[in-house]
């Protein structure tokens, strides 16, 4: 029997794909057949619905002690182009967003060398007092390790517990990149390892917390390294069930040092769809796969809804990280835009909250 036939039968019977079959999805599988199979797997999980969240992105600062080669967002402390928002400024932005109907405030920043621990706790406490209370999806696993090791000098469980008490609802999925150590050495030397990223999420899930997972692809990684990344996420999800969804996004090369060094061509539209479809089939224990329109653009995200994706992420308001790297997509969307995009793609739009529950 051909590899594709075996894959079709396994997916049809709800059986897990092997590592080699995962690699075949990236390297050998016919593009449209892959899309159709991923679409059937999506439909079994979520039916005709496709979701989005009314959220607002905020970044407290882009000052960072690291210099990941792929990142165009971060600046050193005294470099031009740095910004830092006070708690009061964050709350003001949050208040405006909640007033417009946002149910989620999504916050990440760089690894700031000198902001005190109290800043992060005060920021969460103050945002948690807004009414109606927005859900606070805040910090990557990398920021959590920075807070634990360099800022608070406490253990990871202690820091997560402090943040939870201050109002943290969900961790973000950022910082995962590709887990393979060799890839990390080339694109983000000095950053925490894949195991360390997974450990933070494992601890958070063990405390009853939820989070999302991501994959930054389209740089120096191989198909095998993508599948290894996805299998590690699937393995943790088997143990904890704490991931709410998966968000893959393509490396944005135009403003980053890595692009200058490696002359990397941005992932094509077909490759972006292939990653979404393969992720849907490999991540059999994830309910939700997001087409991140900030990265793909809204028209391709619409098509992705027929290639395994069931979620368009959010309205966002003002995205900085991809746009500082050169993304040409809009910085935000209205609810109306996302709903019509979903409807036009033949799905029933539903507004969800941070935990993918219908609002
Ligand atoms: S990706 Fe994150 S940790 Fe790396 S330089 Fe950018 S802000 Fe800092």
Structure report:
- This protein is an alpha/beta fold and 359 residues long.
- It is built from 16 helices and nine strands.
- The chain has helices at residues 3-12, 19-27, 31-46, 87-100, 117-128, 141-152, 156-166, 181-187, 194-206, 223-240, 257-262, 269-282, 293-296, 298-304, 321-324, 335-344, and strands spanning 49-53, 55-58, 104-107, 135-138, 170-171, 210-217, 243-250, 311-314, 348-352.
- The strands form three sheets. The chain has a three-stranded parallel sheet with strand order 8-1-9, with helices on one face. A three-stranded parallel sheet has the order 2-3-4, covered by helices on one side. A three-stranded parallel sheet has the order 5-6-7.
- Helix 2 crosses helix 10 (223-240), helix 4 packs parallel to helix 5 (117-128) and helix 9 (194-206) runs parallel beside helix 10.
- The longest helix is centred in the middle third of the chain and has 18 residues, at 223-240.
- It is globular, with a radius of gyration of 19 Å.
- 50% of the residues are buried.
- Iron/sulfur cluster binds next to loops.
